[in-house]
Amino acid sequence: MKFFLDSAKIDEVRYANHMWNIDGVTSNPRHVRNSGKPFLGVIRELAKEFEGTDKHISVEVNPHHTNAEAMVEEAVIIAAMSKNFVIKIPATEAGFKACWMLSQKGIRVNLTLVFSPAQALQAARMGAAYVSPFIGWKESNGEEVSQFIEEIVTIYDNYGYETEIIVAAVRNARQIVEAALAGADIVTAGFDVYKDAFDHPYTAKGLKLFSDNWDATPYE
């Protein structure tokens, strides 16, 4: 399974890249705003961080676009800025059309804001490189999520779709594990989610126990 970082803060991205060897980055307008920097400045920083690698950075088009042609026009400009960029397009009727148009141009698309297996199926049909089903939002609304991901995995396996599944809006370590058990290709989570997931109080307890015994034992 691949781990993507859901962030646009360059310090978080650099840390995650160097310490955790993350496989890619997903960003959205909220992340860009939280970085405190202009949109173009942020995505140029991200591109520079991964220059010379095959790691992908998802960059979202202007969410105000309501027609496919406007999405495609902006997507072409963004995609030309870096070979690492993948264009995030919303799972709307216009978004699906834009996905098809971009896939015909050889531009990778991440269909985002996916909340149903039917949307994920259409994304694959339209040539999406990635699909991003959101689980945190659904779970917060009281909806079941494990079967949601399993159904998408099964559909893609049934028809041999090459679209990779990015389980998004992941809130905790358990959801990372459940996504892996369901057979998803990728999870994308925030910096603090990974920090917590890679830590465990028993590891710290065990390390202290071993350290105390090391200190109490002659070396030679």
CATH superfamily: Aldolase class I
Low-confidence stretches: none
Percent strand: 15-25%
What general outline do the C-alpha atoms trace?
A: globular
- Helix segment tally: 11
Please tally the β strands and state the result: 8
CATH classification class: Alpha Beta
Number of domain modules: 1
Q: Span from first to last CA?
A: 44 Å
- In the CATH hierarchy, the third-tier topology is known as TIM Barrel
Provide structural commentary:
The chain is an alpha/beta fold. The chain has a single domain (2-215), classed as Aldolase class I (TIM Barrel, Alpha-Beta Barrel), CATH 3.20.20.70. It has eleven helices and eight strands. An eight-stranded parallel beta barrel has the order 1-2-3-4-5-6-7-8, surrounded by eight helices. Helix 6 (117-125) links the parallel strand 5 (109-114) and strand 6. Helix 6 packs parallel to helix 8 (146-159). The longest helix has 15 residues, at 201-215. It is globular and about 70 Å long.
